[in-house]
Specification:
Layout lengths: L25 E6 L4 E2 L10 E5 L7 E5 L6 E4 L14 E4 L6 E4 L7 E4 L38 E9 L3 E8 L5 E7 L5 H30 L2 E2 L8 E5 L5 E5 L6 E2 L15 H4 L9 H15 L12 H12 L21 H9 L8
Parallel strand pairs: 1-2
Antiparallel strand pairs: 1-3, 3-4, 4-6, 5-7, 7-8, 9-10, 10-11, 12-15, 13-14
Length: 358
C-alpha cells in the first residue's frame, strides 16, 4: 500500500506459472472466485487477470474483467486503458504500469505495486483435460481504431540506416511486437519521407511474397521465376497495395524440378551454376532477395556488374550487408542448406503472421 496510508495492511502476491490455470496464457485471475480470492462484495467474481500474449508469449497484459470497470493502473508510470480498444487490457513491464488498483469508485479499494522477478521461465502448457469449450474472450475483427496513435514500450534495437533506427517495440494496448522506425531530423524532409515510404512499400511487398512462397512450399511447389515483373499489385481502398505473385509457367513440384529455368539475374546459385544440385523451394527465396535488392538499389546493386556467377555473388553479398536489408540476409546464403525458408523469415521479421508451413 502507499506510504501515505500507514494504517493499511500491506502484503505480497506471487504471480507466475506456479499458479495452475485452465488456459496456458492466463498467469492468474484476481477476484472473489479467482486464483487469488478477495472476500469483499466490492470485488467482482473475476475482477482482473494477468495474461501472456498468445502469439509472442513474452509480453504480459493486465486485463480488466470487472463488472464495473474498476481496475485501473496508477502512479507516475501509468499508461491507462485505452477506451477505444475492444477489450480493457494494457501492457505491463519493468518500465510502465508498475502500480494498479481494483474496486471502489476511485479504483483504489485494493492497490498493488508490481515487482518483477529476475528469473524468467517458459509459460506452462495448458492441461488438455481442462480445455476451454468457448472462446476465452468475445471474438473481434478490430484490434485498433483506424489511424489511432500507437502507444508503445521499447524492447531492443533491430538496426540502423542512413535515415534512422529501427526498434522492436511492444504495443501497450495489444501486446503485439512491432518494428518502429525513428527518423533522424534533417533539412531534406521530403526526400527522407519519399525514401522511407518507398522502403515501407518494398518491405510490404516482401511480406506478401514470403506468404505466397510459404504457401507454395507447403504444397511442395517451386515458382522458379520470382522477379519484379512477376509481382503484381492491386490498390486497396485503405491506400495500401495487395501484392500477388504471377506467371506460374515455370512452376513445378520440387520432386520433379530439374531443368534449367528462371531469369539469370534472379536465378539461385545452385541453378545458375548448372551443378546438378536438387532444386528446392529455397531457390525462390534467393530470387526474392535479389528482387528486393534490385528494387531498393541496395548498396548500389543496379550499377554493379552481374554477368558471371562470381559477380552476382559479390553484388548480392554486399546487398545482404546493406543496413536496411540485413534483417533478410539469411535469404542470400549461397549454400541452399544455409538459406532461410519463407517460413523462417516470416517468423523472424513478421512475427509469423501469414505462415502456412508448420
Amino acid at each position: 500500500m502507499p506510504p501515505e496510508q500507514p494504517d493499511c495492511q500491506s502484503s505480497g502476491l506471487d504471480i507466475g506459472i506456479n499458479i495452475t490455470s485452465t488456459s496456458r496464457y492466463t498467469l492468474a485471475i484476481l477476484g472473489r472466485q479467482g486464483h487469488i480470492r478477495f472476500d469483499d462484495p466490492g470485488i467482482s467474481p473475476l475482477h482482473c487477470s494477468f495474461e501472456l500474449h498468445k502469439d509472442n508469449r513474452e509480453e504480459v497484459m493486465l486485463q480488466d474483467r470487472s463488472l464495473d470497470n474498476s481496475t485501473q493502473v496508477l502512479g507516475p508510470t501509468a499508461m491507462p486503458f485505452n477506451p477505444g480498444q475492444p477489450h480493457r487490457r494494457v501492457l505491463i513491464d519493468r518500465e510502465i504500469n508498475l502500480q494498479f488498483g481494483i474496486g471502489g469508485a476511485a479504483h483504489d479499494l485494493y492497490q498493488f505495486q508490481i515487482r518483477w522477478h529476475d528469473q524468467r521461465n517458459d509459460n506452462g502448457v495448458g492441461n488438455p483435460s481442462h480445455a476451454l469449450t468457448i472462446a476465452h474472450e468475445p471474438p473481434t475483427s478490430v484490434s485498433c481504431l483506424p489511424f489511432a496513435r500507437i502507444r508503445y514500450s521499447n524492447r531492443e534495437p533491430l538496426g540502423s540506416g542512413a535515415f534512422g533506427e529501427v526498434w522492436k517495440v511492444a504495443n501497450v494496448d495489444t501486446g503485439e511486437h512491432l518494428a518502429l522506425k525513428r527518423m533522424r531530423r534533417s533539412h531534406n524532409h521530403f526526400d527522407e519521407y519519399s525514401s522511407l515510404k518507398r522502403e515501407v512499400d518494398i518491405l510490404s511487398r516482401v511480406s506478401h511474397m514470403l506468404k505466397a512462397l510459404d504457401c507454395l512450399a507447403n504444397e511442395g511447389m517451386i515458382h522458379r521465376d520470382v522477379k519484379p515483373e512477376n509481382i503484381l499489385f492491386t490498390p486497396l481502398s485503405s491506400g495500401d497495395y495487395l501484392y500477388q505473385l504471377a506467371d506460374f509457367g515455370l512452376a513445378n513440384m520440387a520432386a520433379n524440378a530439374q531443368t534449367y529455368a528462371g531469369t539469370e539475374p534472379y536465378m539461385a546459385p545452385e541453378v545458375y551454376s548448372g551443378s546438378g544440385q536438387p532444386q528446392t523451394v529455397k531457390m525462390d527465396i534467393w530470387s526474392l532477395f535479389v528482387t528486393a535488392a534490385y528494387a531498393m538499389n541496395a548498396a548500389g546493386y543496379r550499377r554493379k556488374p552481374r554477368r558471371s556467377l562470381e559477380q552476382v555473388l559479390k553484388a548480392v553479398g554486399e546487398a545482404a550487408m546493406w543496413p536496411r536489408l540485413q534483417m533478410f540476409q539469411e535469404m542470400a546464403s549461397e549454400n541452399p542448406d544455409d538459406r532461410a525458408t519463407a517460413g523462417d523469415m516470416l517468423d523472424k521479421v513478421f512475427h509469423g503472421r501469414g505462415r502456412t508451413t508448420s
